[in-house]
Specification:
The protein has four helices and two strands, in the order ββαααα. By secondary structure, it is mainly alpha-helical. It has a single domain (2-61), classed as FAD/NAD-linked reductase, C-terminal dimerisation domain (Enolase-like, domain 1, 2-Layer Sandwich). It is globular and about 35 Å long. The two termini are 24 Å apart.
Length: 75
């Protein structure tokens, strides 16, 4: 996920894998309407689905992701 550091607007996203075509529509729409990562993260993402990966990526831009290892800066 790529977002502008100051405005939080979505600038782009890379998705690789078998279900990439199922996931790219949400960030593409976000870019089209000028949405921010925070706005997309507030949308409902059904559990359990692959769409939660998009939510997690949006949250990670604002250091709010909870389903990943935290970066400690050590080693």
């Amino acid at each position: 996920m790529i977002a502008d550091a100051e405005s939080d607007r979505i600038l782009g996203m890379h998705i690789l894998g078998a279900h990439a075509a199922d996931l790219i529509h949400e960030p593409a729409l976000a870019m089209q309407v000028g949405a921010t990562a925070s706005q997309i993260a507030r949308l409902i993402h059904v559990h359990p689905t692959l769409a939660e990966d998009v939510l997690e990526a949006m949250e990670d831009l604002n250091e709010a992701a909870i389903h990943q290892l935290k970066k400690t800066g050590k080693g």
